[in-house]
From TrEMBL:
This is phosphoglycerate dehydrogenase. NCBIfam families: PRK11790.1 (NF008759). Its EC number is 1.1.1.95. The lineage of its organism: Eukaryota, Fungi, Dikarya, Ascomycota, Pezizomycotina. Belongs to the D-isomer specific 2-hydroxyacid dehydrogenase family. Pfam families: 2-Hacid_dh, 2-Hacid_dh_C. One of its GO terms (biological process) is L-serine biosynthetic process. Residues 399-469 form the ACT domain. InterPro entries: ACT-like_dom_sf, ACT_dom, D-2-hydroxyacid_DH, D-isomer_2_OHA_DH_cat_dom, D-isomer_DH_CS, D-isomer_DH_CS1, D-isomer_DH_NAD-bd, NAD(P)-bd_dom_sf.
Length: 469
């Protein structure tokens, strides 16, 4: 088997790296099998995959900022990439200086990858956001310039669900208040309005990744679970879907919110909804701060309608840890802090070692799949495209990746370039004005690879050409 390698091009890069070929170590990565191609899936799966590799892997330079979890570093190191790891973030000037030279950058929420920074990223193929959100990246600019962005939206669902269970019990037993009193030296042994959660009704709003995990945990604790979601969903265990939010609010002893931040979910729980809730019920929000109207919550708690609440997210959240930072960004913060049986946490629902480790694995593997095989599965700014692996016996097959402007006639031009060869499998998808094409071409000689690459590079629609072989 010949060593697989890559040719890559960018409009600003002329043909640097073009045919800069060296030996690559053996990788352990196998891309997922899809259903295309002349060979049956069963036949293909019996054959070992050809290990496609970009250049020599040691040529791939990766910069990991913000103390990204060791799980990710291990995955990337194992591929043989050049990985530089920094515990902190970088100033804009330093970031610009560093980003010029690297192929992949891994960040968390502090690093701002703005257009100004990305403009300098002449060699950048991919960005790994080792977190949930991607607001810190100019996704649009990245997409238009063929830079694929990955994140990990669901690796911390279990952590959030577990926090909800802890808080439901804490609110039912007024643990926050007893703890705070005893820290002050006050002994206050009471059972008035303290409850078991067994037999109580939990109303889950948004039955997605977190809501459904919570449903299972809550039933195991002896709760009855109802949920409201805008789409009909398969209930887990004995949970029951209700058809309106009003119905849920009128039945639930505890209401937990797990919806996304959308115009429709802004102030989803406000004055009117607090009136619809049961007297003495509890509200927990670990979704997004905009979902609850905080002044209305303060009013409902002061009036005794709501017996307790837990908030992990807020309409404005401080950018940095530190004393008084919460009060500075929210006018009602002082009023909140004065309320009894109210648990306030600083957006830590998903902050566990397990979640960080899972995020490291998910994003690390997505980056590896993209670099080695061109698969964009899990990307937030590109169409999700993949092809099954090339098998080892298909020694002279090459994989072509062509990111291009999505306009009429491009596929015809690409296919006329590929047309003299046997296109073993091909797929393409678009997202707004950018399209992503993958094609595996068989029996291509070394000189033909060059000519395919050069021909694709000359197309005016080209954003990025990669040839893996
Ligand atoms: N506190 C934290 O640390 C933390 C961590 C992870 C996620 N989150 C937040 O939790 C929320 C849920 O996350 P997830 O991973 O479960 O999301 P998800 O996308 O898996 O589930 C969301 C569910 O809400 C439903 N939904 C959407 N609009 C709705 C509406 N108007 N009414 C009722 N249901 C609606 C969707 O159909 C979906 O089933 C998100 O806002 C996310 O940002 C917070």
């Amino acid at each position: 088997m010949t060593e697989p390698r890559e040719i890559i091009g960018r409009h600003w890069q002329a043909s640097a790296n073009y045919l800069s070929i060296s030996t690559s170590p053996i990788s352990t990565f196998h891309s997922p099998v899809s259903s295309y191609g002349h060979r049956s899936r069963a036949d293909e799966s019996r054959l070992p995959s050809k290990q496609l590799k970009p250049f020599a892997t040691e040529d791939i330079k990766i910069l990991l900022l913000e103390n990204i979890n060791k799980t990710a570093r291990d995955i990337l190191d194992k591929q043989g990439y050049q990985v530089e790891f920094l515990k902190g973030s970088l100033s804009e000037d330093k970031l610009i200086e560093k980003i010029r030279d690297i192929h992949v950058i891994g960040i968390r929420s502090k690093t701002q990858l703005t257009e100004k920074v990305l403009r300098e990223a002449k060699n950048l193929l991919a960005i790994g956001c080792f977190c949930i959100g991607t607001n810190q990246v100019d996704l649009e600019y990245a997409r238009k310039h063929g830079i694929v962005v990955f994140n990990s939206p669901f690796s911390n669902s279990r952590s959030v669900a577990e926090l909800m269970i802890a808080e439901i019990i804490s609110l039912a037993r007024q643990l926050g208040d007893r703890n705070e009193e005893l820290h002050r030296g006050e002994w206050n042994k009471v059972s008035n309005k303290c409850w078991e959660i067994r037999g109580k009704t939990l109303g889950i709003v948004g039955y997605g990744h977190i809501g459904s995990q919570l449903s299972v945990l809550a039933e195991a604790m002896g709760m009855s679970v109802i949920f409201y979601d805008i789409i009909p969903l398969m209930a887990l265990g004995s949970a029951k879907q209700v058809s309106t939010l009003t119905e849920l609010l009128s039945m639930a002893d505890f209401v937990t919110l797990h919806v996304p931040e959308l115009p429709e979910t802004k102030n989803m729980i406000g004055k009117e909804q607090f009136l619809e809730m049961k007297h003495g019920s509890y509200l927990l929000n670990a979704s997004r701060g905009s979902v609850v109207d905080i002044p209305a919550l303060i009013e409902a708690m002061t009036a005794g309608k709501i017996a307790g609440a837990a908030l992990d997210v807020y309409p404005n959240e401080p950018a940095e840890n530190g004393p008084h930072n919460f009060d500075r960004v929210n006018t009602w913060a002082k009023d909140l802090r004065g309320l009894k049986n109210l648990i306030l946490t600083p957006h830590i629902g998903g902050s566990t070692e397990e979640a960080q480790s899972a995020i490291g694995i998910e994003v690390g593997e997505a980056l590896t799949r993209y670099i080695n095989e061109g698969s964009t599965i899990g990307s937030v700014n590109m169409p999700e495209v993949t092809l099954r692996s090339i098998s080892q016996s298909q020694e002279n097959n090459v994989r072509i990746i062509f990111i291009h402007q999505n306009r009429p006639g491009v596929l015809r031009q690409v296919n006329s370039i590929l047309g003299d060869h046997n296109v073993d499998k091909q797929t393409s998808d678009s997202r707004n004005d950018v399209a992503y094409l993958m094609a595996d071409v068989s029996d291509v000689s070394f000189n033909e690879i060059k000519s395919l690459y050069v021909s694709l590079e000359t197309l005016s629609s080209k954003i990025l050409t990669r040839v893996l072989y």
